[in-house]
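sry for the spam today, last one i promise. struct tokens for design, 468 residues
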């Protein structure tokens, strides 16, 4: 039976991707895991690997087309297999139409106007589809519910009119809080009109209700000017020759969504410490002297290896928070921050748990090179379980990093620099690096964060343990 291949989700909140180029043609045989297309995400161009094995029967998307996550892009099956087209929809509608025509034809002439009235009323109110019938992504549905946006009033810009997250953000929320007073006012007015036929006992009640209503009407009038944020308008529409608006790239939009989402939903806390890297730097020099070719172990490689050892003793920092519980990851996949002129990505070195220091070094270099060529795999984008951000090459001594959802921790390291350090009764020069750990407080507490970074420091200050 033929299998549909769909647009994969290659990022935490990726909603759509652009099919840049097909690497296979109809009729070609494809193997499971073989690259069949190049897909552009918000941050990079990634090779899409086949999720099925067989013959490529159909290409459903043309090159250059933007497709929502989960939409079908190709069909793989057995050679000569006949594709089954979706025909149930039209058949059901053709069956339903005669029924709709027969029902109004049977009633008498007197009932016909009533049917017309019912149809006009249906056009006014019941016609909009229920939320479950509206074509919208899960993220868009959740956001619409939070913002009070009626999906029936939103025009989708995704494939086939599918409503995306950006469409909901652009829509105006339903003024539910404002609608209530408007409905109450006409109700009170109608009660006032009905006062003459009502008994005198109810007259005082109407008067008592009108007084607080007038007070309530005055309050919104006073608050209305306060709600108008006039200073915002000049920022949205800059004026003057010395100002210009630079459009956001897709990568910058993605970084904005990820970082804002992280800082607004993940309660960060931070622990920092100075790490004496003198012995680690000496060991690194000895290892590099013994390596052949262009193979070199970097400071970042030493930190990655130390983090792997530390995570094994503190597995909670290799987890993800969910409302149902904390998801513990068996594989240790270390994400490393890679920056270029377009922005920042954080792909992961997969399965670091059993890798040696030199294997981690080789995998790290390979990850950087493939990110520059745009040949990273989808799981390298989405599979990270712990991340490291290194700004030492920029001569930055200290900074804090934002956690990459859905991970629970990230380590920020600065440059290694020589400093005077007191040892006993003497002052010596040592090579010091400052490290800061950002932790999701929903997953762990300050004491555990402190224990983690102290253990990390122990490994780096006694680096021979990293070789065991």
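last one done:
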């Amino acid at each position: 039976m033929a299998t549909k291949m769909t647009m994969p989700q290659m990022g935490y909140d990726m909603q759509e991707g652009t099919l840049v180029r097909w690497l296979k043609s109809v009729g070609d045989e494809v193997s499971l895991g073989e690259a069949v297309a190049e897909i552009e995400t918000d941050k990079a161009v990634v090779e899409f690997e086949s999720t099925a094995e067989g013959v490529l029967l159909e290409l459903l998307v043309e090159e250059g087309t933007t497709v929502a996550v989960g939409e079908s892009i190709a069909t793989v099956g057995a050679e000569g297999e006949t594709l089954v087209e979706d025909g149930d929809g039209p058949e059901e509608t053709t069956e339903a139409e005669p029924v709709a025509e027969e029902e109004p034809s049977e009633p008498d002439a007197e009932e016909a106007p009533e049917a017309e009235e019912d149809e006009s009323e249906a056009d006014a109110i019941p016609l909009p589809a229920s939320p479950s019938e509206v074509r919208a992504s899960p993220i868009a549905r959740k956001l619409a519910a939070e913002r009070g946006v009626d999906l029936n009033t939103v025009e989708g810009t995704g494939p086939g009119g599918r409503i995306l997250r950006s469409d909901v953000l652009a829509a105006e929320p339903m003024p539910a809080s404002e609608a209530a007073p408007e409905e109450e006012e006409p109700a009170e007015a109608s009660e006032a009109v009905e006062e003459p036929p009502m008994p005198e006992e109810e007259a005082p009640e109407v008067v008592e209700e009108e007084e607080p209503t007038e007070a309530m009407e005055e309050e919104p009038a006073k608050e209305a000017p306060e709600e108008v944020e006039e200073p915002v308008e000049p920022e949205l529409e800059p004026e003057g020759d010395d100002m210009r608006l630079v459009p956001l790239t897709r990568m910058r939009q993605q970084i904005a969504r990820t970082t804002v989402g992280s800082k607004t939903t993940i309660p960060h806390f931070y622990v920092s410490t100075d790490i004496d890297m003198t012995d680690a730097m000496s060991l690194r020099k000895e290892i590099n002297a013994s390596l052949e070719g262009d193979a070199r172990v970097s400071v970042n490689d030493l930190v990655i290896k130390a983090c792997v050892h530390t995570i094994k003793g503190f597995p909670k920092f290799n987890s993800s928070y969910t409302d149902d519980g904390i998801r513990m990851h068996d594989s240790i996949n270390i994400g490393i921050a890679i920056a270029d002129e377009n922005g920042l990505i954080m792909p992961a070195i997969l399965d670091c748990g059993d890798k040696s220091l030199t294997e981690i070094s080789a995998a790290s270099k390979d990850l950087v090179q493939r990110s520059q060529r745009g040949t990273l795999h989808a799981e390298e984008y989405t599979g990270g379980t712990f991340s490291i951000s290194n700004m030492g090459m920029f001569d930055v001594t200290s900074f804090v990093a934002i956690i990459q959802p859905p991970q629970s921790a990230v380590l920020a390291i600065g440059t290694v620099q020589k400093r005077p350090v007191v040892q006993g009764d003497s002052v010596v020069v040592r090579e010091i690096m400052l490290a800061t750990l950002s932790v999701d407080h929903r997953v762990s507490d300050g004491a555990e964060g402190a224990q983690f970074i102290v253990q990390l420091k122990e490994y780096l200050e006694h680096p021979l343990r990293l070789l065991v």
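The chain has 13 helices and 19 strands. ok im logging off now
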